[in-house]
């Protein structure tokens, strides 16, 4: 009997490649999300530290109109940066979700062909066993007929 050959092997390899590409995109999206979250946390920590600094400055030196204006402008800009960073985190999370969905689809389509390959391989092995049994039965019959 000829050796096992899966006719959809090229499709299986193609889907495997697509799955690997989707995994790569998912990992990149996760890395991007983590970077953006770290940047946001850094800005939020800076805001907390600067608020504390502002309160200490207020206690030590008191507030003048110039210093109040300076702190106000700084905090306004910092809040804008935090808002922009939060938007980038949301965008990165959306990309991660899309990449995860793409990966799930790629895995599912690969599994379909992989399961079909396993099924065909099992059928091939069963047929191989049947042929071997048939040959053994034939040999047994020949030996029996010669011995009689």
From TrEMBL:
Q: Where in the cell is it found?
A: Cell membrane
Coiled-coil region(s) at which residues? 75-139
For this UniProt record, give its keywords in alphabetical order, as a comma-separated list.
Answer: Bacterial flagellum biogenesis, Bacterial flagellum protein export, Cell membrane, Chemotaxis, Coiled coil, Membrane, Protein transport, Transport
Protein's GO biological process: bacterial-type flagellum organization; bacterial-type flagellum-dependent cell motility; chemotaxis; protein transport
InterPro entries reported for this sequence: Flag_assembly_chemotaxis_eff, Flagell_FliJ
Q: Which Pfam families match?
A: FliJ
Q: Is this entry keyworded Coiled coil? A: yes
One cellular component term from this protein's GO annotations in UniProt:
bacterial-type flagellum
Membrane topology note: Peripheral membrane protein
Recorded family membership:
Belongs to the FliJ family.
Q: What is this protein called?
A: Flagellar FliJ protein
Instruction: State the organism's lineage.
Output: Bacteria, Bacillati, Bacillota, Negativicutes, Selenomonadales
